[in-house]
# Entry
Amino acid sequence: MNQIKFRKFLSPILILLIWQTIAINGIVPTWFLPVPTEVMKTLFGMIMSGEVPHHTLISLGRAFSGYLLAAVVGILLGLLIAWSTIIEDFFDPLIELIRPLSTFALIPIFFLWFGIGNTSKILIIFKSCFFPIIINTIAGIKGVDAKLIMAAQSLGANGFQLWTRVLLPSAMPMIITGLRISTAIAMMALVGVEMLSSDSGLGFLVIDAQRTFDTERVFAGIGVLSIIGFSLDKLARYIQSKALSWHSETSLGGGM
Amino acid sequence: MIDATNISKVFNGRKDRKETLAISNLTMSVKRNEFVSIVGPSGCGKSTFLLMLAGLEKPTSGNLTIEGAPILGPGVQRSIVFQEYLLFPWRTVQGNIEFGPRLRKVSKDDCLADTRDFIELMGLTGFEHCYPHELSGGMQQRVAIARALANKPEVLLMDEPFGALDALTRESMQMELQKIWLQTQCTVLFVTHSISEAIFLSDRVVVMSKRPAIVKEELKIALDRPRQRDMHMTRQFREYEAYLKNIVWEEVN
Ligand SMILES: Nc1ncnc2c1ncn2[C@@H]1O[C@H](COP(=O)(O)OP(=O)(O)OP(=O)(O)O)[C@@H](O)[C@H]1O
Ligand SMILES: [Mg+2]
# Structure
């Protein structure tokens, strides 16, 4: 167990060592590749000054708002679409047309309509998270074994009970997978939109440092983003394994 | 109690729209408290017939009644044990067994007390909190039987319930089923591929023809109740077995 843990740290440590050696010996200029220990010092300073917490909170607020909106609308609409073919036929063409469109293609329009403030940023995160969630919800419900529904019916389940006791729990692995995928997508969209137009947030922090060739700050910002992304993914996986402890596949991978 | 008259069932293939006549003009009836087994070649429509009795498939034509009333849909007085178990994977053994009673708002404590007998009867004690994927095929099948019994049905429809069990467990399950049946006085329709199992358990064995299925033969089994394991050796049992094997053999070839 301990040995496995150690092996997993080997490659990051090795890369940091090589990087440190290259950078400290001046093989490349530090504005091109800063010294890792200096980056950590800079990062520490930025945390202590409140700069990193400030931008992190703003970023997480945006990401969370867009994500939550996508989760609520995506799951509800997905359930409605899986429930009724009339609703499905109405929304299906819209979904098929907008889904393949790159989120970034919509940014100019969102800026035009909603301004460059928080609204369009949240809507862009919403757009990128919405489709994985709704598609997984629909597929989850439609993929429920028809015979399993029969089994529940013969035990006395009526229409509403079928939804709450069979369809939803049965589709839950797919729905939760959609939710988990979307946490990573939310972070990606967040950074993109904050880099394009913003005066706050971690994406802004990174792009602003790059404009002034302050490469240490660029790397510090990237480091923060990477840690947030990593933690969110771990958290999502943890929640997934807890929620689906009955599920043979996820419970195998659940042991963090 | 159950009367099927001139039942036929046509399935429409999904892709090629080719029609399959699974059952044609099947007529049979089952009396209250009777134990009837159905044997017949694979694919002849046995499962389809049970699904129709459960109210989960509709006959294409013909009349299907229970105590004179047509079967229009599922009803809790008819429980079915599916060939494929069909347990709810997100529910524990206990959760699966009490699925039916909980739907009818029976309290958790009452369910626990009610289902304890079935759990014990099926040899599932100690596994109440396991999930289906943690159980062997044979144990999953036993959960499925306990789940069907927990609804206290008048009619128990069983589709090859012991198919996944080893020979020894199978024999003891047959004894248990006989005990349950004698105790609960329910009516049982039992589909099996094993002719000796059919003879051992039943008051009557129905042989279906190959597709499209009709009733090929019906045989009353006049062995004493309760049946003992050594009855397999008796001359009468052997005669039943030889007779039925011949008929089924003709159908398969
Ligand atoms: N939902 C369905 N759609 C189309 N065809 C079906 C469907 N269900 C059953 N059939 C067909 O009807 C026939 C009878 O099937 P059924 O499952 O009732 O047979 P069975 O007697 O139970 O066979 P086995 O002993 O192998 O379980 C088969 O030819 C099968 O392909
Ligand atoms: Mg079958």
In short: Confidence is low (pLDDT under 50) at residues 250-256 of chain A. The two ends of chain A are 12 Å apart (CA to CA). Chain A touches chain B through 22 residues (CB under 8 Å).
